[in-house]
Design goal:
Distance between the termini: 73 Å
Number of strands: 0
Radius of gyration: 20 Å
Largest sheet: none
Strand content: under 5%
Structural class: mainly alpha
Mean pLDDT: 81
Helix content: 55-70%
Order of helices and strands: HHHHHHHHHHH
Length: 267
């Protein structure tokens, strides 16, 4: 027994993975969604809003670690909420997109960020190459993507990299929203297509890749930062705002309700 306890102290418990993140979001917020009235539009608006706040803070007050940490963890939570609503298994989607290396050159580390060129892989290439890695935790995904795009995290220009990554994150969320509506249009027009990973899932994976890029920039800038640990510290006991295992925060307005309240009286 003493040996087991000693081993447990030497080998700390692994941090959250995507499965635990999605389950935690489900446990804290899903049943409360019916009370709050969160629909997909509101979820996406919250996700985009937090990413814009993140980019703004990084540009205006780059040393405000607490606000940056709050914003990036909010992005992860809202992205997981959207994924849950869409029935997406984030671990599988990330494996498909980034498990075998960079999705653009299919190499590890990425050739393109080293200034090299390569031919775009064909669909056959993408489906035939086996997954190289399947990181089991968010912290390991952060490390995996840092190794993949190591040239993006040089200390001499890390603030520029942080600003760029946060801007690209917001852009990816915009593309995610666009792909959601594109899929709806395809369905309405009875246009079917068969791919290994659909556009919405692909954009979701890219979104998380840039979110991890922000986390890696924070780590390089501050010396230590793991997004998995930050999320677990903030959400392990439940909602960080009402302090309840299952969120009991007051009902919030939907996106449409908020827009109506802001509409000029003469309209």
């Amino acid at each position: 027994m003493n040996e087991l306890l000693a081993k447990a102290e030497i080998e700390p418990r692994e941090s959250w993975g995507f499965k635990q993140l999605q389950q935690r979001v489900n446990d804290i917020y899903t049943e409360h969604d019916e009370i709050c009235g969160y629909g997909p539009d509101t979820m996406l608006a919250k996700l985009l809003g937090n990413s814009v706040t993140l980019a703004h803070v990084i540009r205006k007050t780059p040393d405000d670690f607490n606000t940056i940490n709050r914003s990036i963890t909010n992005v992860f939570i809202w992205a997981a909420t959207v994924a849950n609503a869409a029935g997406i298994d984030l671990q599988k989607v990330m494996e498909k997109q980034f498990g075998a290396g960079c999705p653009h050159c299919r190499q590890m580390p990425c050739l393109l960020t080293q200034g090299k060129t390569c031919e775009k892989p064909t669909t056959v290439d993408l489906q035939s190459k086996p997954y190289v890695l399947s990181p089991s935790s968010l912290n390991k995904w952060q490390e995996h993507l840092k190794k993949m795009y190591a040239n993006n995290f040089q200390t001499d220009n890390i603030q520029t990299a942080l600003s760029f990554s946060s801007t690209r994150l917001a852009e990816e969320i915009g593309e995610l929203i666009g792909s959601a509506y594109a899929d709806i249009e395809k369905e309405l027009n009875s246009v079917s297509f068969q791919t290994d990973i659909n556009p919405f899932e692909s954009e979701m994976a890219d979104l998380f890749a840039w979110a991890f890029a922000v986390a890696n920039c924070i780590e390089v800038k501050n010396g230590k930062y793991s997004i998995g640990d930050a999320l677990e510290e903030k959400y392990d006991k439940g909602c960080p705002y009402c302090k309840s295992p299952q969120c009991i925060c007051p009902k919030v307005k939907t996106l449409i309700e908020s827009l109506r309240d802001k509409r000029p009286s003469f309209l």
